[in-house]
Each structure stands twice: as C-alpha cells, then as structure tokens.
Records
---
Amino acid sequence: MARFALYLFIFLSAFCGPSISKEYQLPQNTDVTFKYSVAGLPFEGEFKVTESKFDINFRDPVQSVFSVKFDLMKSNAGFPLATTAMKQVLDAYRFPEVTFESKSVEFNDEKFSVLGFLKIRNVSKPVNLIVTVLEDYNSESEKIYFSIRARFKRRQFGADGYYPLVRDAIIIQDVLTLNKSRE
C-alpha cells in the first residue's frame, strides 16, 4: 500500500502539478525581416507571420518547442518588382506557406541554438536559428523580447531563379516580441 501511495504521489506530481511551460505567440500580422543581395547590393524584405506557437519550458528551456507559419502572398521583398520575382521564384501561388518547426534547442554562450526544419516550396531542410533573449523573463512574463538570426541557401529549396544575380544566401534577422497566450 505504501508503494502504491508513493507511485500515486509521483504520478500526481508529474502530471497534475503546476505547469512548467507556458504558451506564447507572436502578435497578429507580425513581419519578420529577411535580407538578400542583388548584384552585390543589400536589400530587405518581410515575411508575414500568420500563425505561431511557442511552448516555453521555464524549468528546462531546452525542452521548449515552437512553430511559425508565414504567408508568402502577404510577404514582400522590399519593392514591387522584387516582390513579384520573389513570389515567382518561391512558387508562392502553388506553395503560399513557409513553415519553421523546431526539433531541438541548446543553450550556449547566453544564446539559444534552435535546430528546426524550414519548409519552402514543399521542401524541408534543417536550419539553425540563433535566439538571444534581450531582457530577463520568467513564467509570469506577459511579453518576451528576443532577437533572431538564421542563414540558409534558397537554392537548397529549389528556389534558383535569377541566380547568380540574386545571391543564394537569405538571412533572417529581426527583434521580435512574444505575447503570453490567453488560456
């Protein structure tokens, strides 16, 4: 009987205790900045976020998971001609969504290294996202401020139009805010 009581206590503590993770999301219609180069000149565009979910584990942050969906049809490459070309190269009319889903999180040198899969043109490839939290936060925080940086090669996703005029490297770099989801 004592053994049963111990097992019951462990089970209840593990599954019925206070939650160790909290859910956050990016504000509606958030734009995430990306950088690219045309003929050696730098340009910026914005991916429009349509959905996001960040399940942040405050006791063990490396157990956190998140996903983000972008709408290419509402995104822009900085000016109309480049936006039209981007939608053509990324085949946005057939594949209007870009997604990122985390698979693992590591913490080193005050930064989170998030390995996840980026899906563009229905092709998924691993991408490493560097996340730096800009202010102290805890499970009671209503907002979390952080910077992100990732680099990938667009041709890995079959997006090779206008290469080499438009370089292969795409850099995602921005400062973003997460809002605590209402339960």
Note: The chain has a mean pLDDT of 90.
---
Amino acid sequence: MTTPSKFLAALLMLSYLLASGAGAATPKPVKVLFVGNSLTYVGNLPAVLAALATENGKALQAGMLVKDGASLTQWLDSGAVQRALTANHYDYVVLQERGNDFACGFGPQVCKDSRHALHALAGIARGTGAKPILLGTYQVDHEASETLVTAESKAAHQDAMPYIAVSGRLNAGRKQFAYFDWFAKAGHPGHDLVLLEAVLLYQQLYGGLPEAKPLEVRAPMFVPGSRFAPPAPTSMPLLPEMPLAGGYGYARQELTAALELANSH
C-alpha cells in the first residue's frame, strides 16, 4: 500500500472510531431536586417522573427534600436546599409550596413569606446552575382553585420561572374521569394526580409529551405520614417505610387521560 493510501486508510479508520464512540456515548442524565412536603412525596412524584422518563428513552435522576407540612420558608431557613445543591449538581429544582399558601389561605404574612422564600430559593438554585420550576398545588372549589392558580402564576412570573398549573387540570380530570384515583387520605394526591403532575413536569423538561403506554414504577409508594430522616443531603425514608413500598403500575388508559388533561389548558 502506498503512503497516500495508508494515510487515507488511517483517516477513514479514525473517522469510524470517532463516529462509533459518539454513538455509543451514554446520555447524561437530567438531575432534578424536588423541594416540598407531603403533597410532593405521597405517591412518590420524583420516582414516577423518573420512571416516565426512562420508559420514554430519557435518563433522569431525582432527589427530594420533603417533610410533612413543610413550607418553602422553612426549607429556606433550614439551609437544606443550599447544602443539597452544594453536595450534588442538579439541572432543575422543582419547588412546591403547601396548599393555598400563595393565596394567603393562612393569612397575609404567610403568602408574603411564601413569595420571599420562592424568590430566595430561585436565586440559590440559579447560583448553582440549576433552573427553578414552581409546581402548583390545588383546590377543589372552583373559585378557590382559580384564586390559587392566579396567585401561584403571579409569584412564578415575578421571579421569571416556569409555572406548572395543576388545580384546573385536576378539577377537569375529576369531571371527565370521576372513577380515577385522584386523592389519597386527607386530600393528598392519589396515584392519578401524581401521574398528571409527572406528565406536566416531563413536558416542561423535554418540550413534548411522553407516549401513552403502560408505566411500571418500581419504587416506594409513600403515604401520608411517611417519615423521613433529616436531609443528608436529601431526604431518605426511615424504616419501616421502605418495606411498605411495592411500586405501582399505571394502565395505558391512565396515561392517555393524563396526556389529554396536560393538553387541555
């Protein structure tokens, strides 16, 4: 083989190896930190979102900071969010307040504190390169629901962050699919509400909706009152919470309904 021919052969081999290496590279997972309370952990929203991403060919890892009744103000004051974001890199921070706090359901000082905490936590997230997202809560009364969505939307807009409205879609789902599992004990999210939130978050993260197909979630399905250890740096369940898990399987019909609701508002 002549020298030019050897050079061409070597160049072709190098191009092949580079192309093969690029094709074989493992996609970098999107990392999401959830900050919230029992509205966030009941039904294990982080795990449902991760399973939904995996089922649709995406790599996603999720952690959470959760505690019963915790407000964003309490998470800000505790310093736990700062510590979690310092210990690990996250691409997104999903913030979920207690139900009705932004709408001054517990007095004007509470909603003022909520807006301050949202602003501060958004700044902390952005300071580490993460993008904050406000995940809405819900009210079943029509007027209260609209008031809540307006207040949450305004708070998110003031801090230039995406807002995922849940309440209106939930109430539409309760009418269209009355037999679905919308609520758990004491008004906490049921499995189908958790799925709806996961679909909405998937849409926000990836710019499109997942496929309508059965989904198996192999993770603990936390219930109201589940206990978590102090963040180190994120929340981990205390025994015997893990054994009560069992996972959960969503049927195609449930995915189809969630996709319809996600597109309806």
Note: Residues 76 and 121 are 7 Å apart (CA to CA).
---
Amino acid sequence: MNEDLYVRLYRRLNKKGDVFKLAKIFDIPEGVLFAILSQKIVRKTKRDYHGLKKQSRRLLKQWKNGKSLLKLSEERKFSPVLIASFVLRENGMSKKHFREYLHNPQEVTNPRISREILEVLEEEVVYSPEAAEIQRENGKNAEKRIAEWLDKQGTEYITEAEARALHQKTPDFLLKDVFSVNGKNIFWVESKASFGDKIQMKGDYHRQLKHYVSLFGDGMVVYWHGYLNDTSSPQDFPYDDHVLISNSDLIEDSGCLNSKEN
C-alpha cells in the first residue's frame, strides 16, 4: 500500500462501519482496514484516555439526559467500551461488575444499560472481550502459518516460549537451521498480525527487533496485513538493513526462499 492511500484511509477510519464502506470503495481486504483502525484506536486511547476520563461527570449528565453511550462515543470518536466504563463507573458501577457485564450483558437487570452495553459491544473494535479474543486468535493463526511454512522448508526452530528459558527477549521463531531469503541468511522470524505503518514499524524496532539483531543476528519480520510501500518480495527494514520485512505473500508463495543453509 502506498503512503498516499494509507493516509487517506487512516483519516477516514474512525469506527467499524467505516471498514466495510472503505473496503468496497477501495477494494481492500477488511482485515487490513481493521488492523489500521485498531492501531489508530489504540494510539488515540493512549493520547486522550486521561483527558476524557476527567470528563466522566459531564458524560454521565449527558447520558442521564438521554444521550446513549454509543452516541457519546461517536461524538468523541473514542472507544465505545471505554466511554461506557467512564459513564457507568461514575454512576456507581464497580469495575468488577462492569467487566462482568461486558462478558455477560444479559445479566444486567437495568433494561437501558443492558441494551446500551450490547450496542457498544457491537461497535467496539479493540476493547471488548470479543475483540480481544479475535486479536489473540489472529496472532496465534499468524504464528501457526509461519510454523507450517518453516516446517515445509524443513527448517528447525525454537519457539518463543521455549527460547524464553534462555533469553529474556526472544523472537517468535529462533531458527536452528539458518536459511537464505533473497540472498540474506536469517536467524529468526517475528510475526506481527498488524499493518506496518511508520509508527508501528519504529515502535516494533525499538521494543523488539533491534534487540533480536543484537542477540541473534539478522532476521525477518512478517507484517500479515502488509506495510507501507510493500511488495510481493521481502525488502530491507526501513530502520535496519539487518532485518528483512515481508507481508504474507512470502508465506503463501515461498519462491523467494532461495536455499536452506547446511
């Protein structure tokens, strides 16, 4: 995806409905757009959470005057579940009960609260129990596909869970058999069930990838939903040429895997 298109999409993605609309307009997979929207929501949450939480009393007043939790969240372009938590906890609901109601909204005895919790859960992209489970499953499925790909190449590896006994910072796959991708030997593979925009790639590099290079040598990161200016063939990572960056095309078509090193 080129940067101009990414910027246009990023600006227009604010809620779940935008994903379905833009997917049709631009013929882009919904999974890619959900990944971009999720990252935007997380960044906005980090930026605006405390400021909006301070407005809880005002939000509660507007809710008591008839404005729905979903409407309050739409006006502020903020997570429906988090807005609901501000309002209902300001109204006296405990944190424990709020979490329980998110998992079991049918147990809420107040008809209005029950209805509106169901509404915010339907629209939530990141912070609902269902959204969190989808994110976990996406991550697990991405790692499973890489494992199957490595198995197909006959390459042995140590998983992240196994490697943690040896190192504090570990990639998803630490390779026992080094092999070459686009002429570069790699020693590890990291899976990211996200879209690699500049903020995401820079954050991933400083949090994880640069440490893997220091500990294990050259490696590769796979962004399952693509990255800025991606191609069907792996490229050098923008912040470090000791790291290759790829999208899922590599896993689906292993033609750019040159050879296993003995």
Note: Residues 45 and 78 are 7 Å apart (CA to CA).
